[in-house]
Write a structure and sequence with these properties.
alpha+beta, Alpha-Beta Plaits, 3 helices
């Protein structure tokens, strides 16, 4: 498995997460449509938030990053949020 963390902070990040919280069912549907989807977490921080997507392989993670970027461009460009800091890697342990 492979995971990616997208962390948003700075100008517009709180507004982005306000919008994401209002549209969680839409975001869930979008992430579940990713090939090889395993899990998705969306968490708020003091200055924005982060998401963690886990897929069966790197291709799924790459697809999730593209879908997230496209969704934000189409639905949340007005928040002014900067591009996220992205970290990804191979999963060592996944506990449910």
């Amino acid at each position: 498995m492979h995971s990616v963390i997208r962390a948003y902070s700075g100008s517009g990040a709180r507004e982005l997460f306000d919008l994401l919280e209002k549209r969680t069912s839409e975001v869930e549907s979008l992430m579940r449509s990713v090939q090889g989807f395993v899990s998705y977490t969306l968490a708020r921080t003091a200055d924005g938030g982060f998401s963690v997507t886990t897929c069966n392989d790197k291709a799924g993670v790459e697809e999730s990053v593209k879908k997230a970027k496209d969704w934000i461009a189409a639905n949340a460009a007005g928040t002014g949020a900067s591009a996220p800091t992205i970290s990804e890697g191979t999963v060592i342990l996944h506990v449910k």
